[in-house]
Specification:
The chain is of the alpha/beta class. The protein contains 10 helices and 17 strands. Strand 10, helix 4 and strand 11 (about 195-200) form a beta-alpha-beta unit. It is globular, with a radius of gyration of 20 Å.
């Protein structure tokens, strides 16, 4: 089979479209023919090297996989070859205290397909059979692949962790990225007023098309002050911040009394300034969130299947052009997901 792999860490130039051996499913696994695989910033970070990971080389990433089951391994029941599937990228042990509570994204050995094991930027991939969710005929492979990781992440952040309620104000920072864009329609589905920030007027207008109520261009105005004006100095109930160090202080100052700051990443750096006095005096909550549990994955995919949420696709490209797609993602030129087709 062909795979978009790298033999060394570095920029997009290290990517090679090469022939590799076909994988075979082990016990409890399924072999999936990849029909579409969407990119995430995780693909860039793994390719550039995550120091804490012992990534075996050559390696290929790809967490958002949709395709057809080709073969199943021993001990697999209820999943047949030919089934169209979307793949949950989360890997969990199934036996620790968190897995037994149904909180598998907090598993002591949690991992992600495409980060901890080779992923879907290839023609074939082996995955745990339990991670395969049958895909209805009316949902396309590209749509499913573009939807998976960012929506399961945004769903857990807003629905589970922040418990966003109707009538609340939600601030989403840096709209245009995968999670922040997916959070706009989820916020509207929860009944919130959605405020978004970006330095791009084009991205702000696309967010408005997704349902955003208020738009703030932070290249033209102080976004913290703009939030205060929009809320009559009250602040918002929930801030979704995966930007990190550059926005952390402002995110805390933008919250109303009892507000919740929920984060799943730190693109601009991991160390943020926190005024602890604001946290205790205004009784704020700071919430971390990673991926989603299996029930949350099924819940948000159900929203896609029912047409209540949809995938946000910037463009589709052939897998052989994956280096150019990753350059586009690195430069932040996309709005929504870049989907690669083997």
């Amino acid at each position: 089979m062909k795979a978009l792999l790298f033999h060394e860490f570095g920029g997009p130039e290290v990517l090679r479209y090469e022939e590799v051996a076909d994988p075979a499913p082990g016990p409890g696994e399924a072999l999936v023919r990849v029909r579409a695989c969407a990119l995430n910033r995780l693909d860039l970070w793994v390719r550039e090297r995550i120091p804490a990971l012992k990534t075996p080389l050559p390696f290929w990433t790809g967490s958002d996989i949709a395709g057809d089951v080709v073969e199943v391994g021993r001990e697999v029941t209820g999943l047949k070859p030919g089934t169209r599937v979307a793949v949950n990228p989360g890997l969990a042990c199934g036996g620790c205290e968190w897995c037994l509570r149904g909180e598998d994204s907090m598993c002591e050995r949690y991992g992600i397909i495409g980060e901890h094991i080779r992923g879907g930027l290839a023609e074939l991939v082996t995955v745990p059979a339990a991670n395969c969710l049958p895909l209805p005929d009316h949902v396309g492979y590209e749509e499913a692949a573009a939807f998976i990781l960012v929506n399961m992440t945004a769903w857990r952040m807003l629905v589970t962790q922040a418990a966003l309620r109707p009538g609340e104000d939600l601030l989403i920072l840096g709209v245009g990225g995968g999670v922040s864009s997916a959070a706009v329609p989820i916020g509207k589905l929860c009944g919130a007023r959605v405020v978004v920030t970006s330095s791009s007027e084009e991205k702000l207008q696309k967010a408005k098309e997704l349902g955003a109520d208020e738009l703030i261009n932070y290249s033209k105005q102080d976004w913290v002050q703009a939030v205060r004006e929009l809320t009559a100095k009250r602040g918002v109930d929930v801030v979704l911040d995966n930007v990190g160090a550059a926005t952390w202080k402002g995110s805390i100052r933008s919250l109303a009394n009892g507000g919740r700051l929920v984060t799943c990443g730190a693109t601009t750096g991991p160390i943020g300034e926190t005024d602890i006095r604001l946290v205790f005096w205004r009784q704020l909550r700071i919430l971390g969130s990673t991926m989603a549990s299996r029930p949350e994955f099924r819940a948000v995919m159900g929203q896609l299947f029912q047409g209540r949420l949809r995938a946000i696709i910037d463009r589709t490209m052939p897998l052989r052009d994956g280096a150019e797609a990753q350059r586009r993602l690195t430069e932040g030129r996309q709005f929504g997901k870049l989907v690669l087709i083997p």
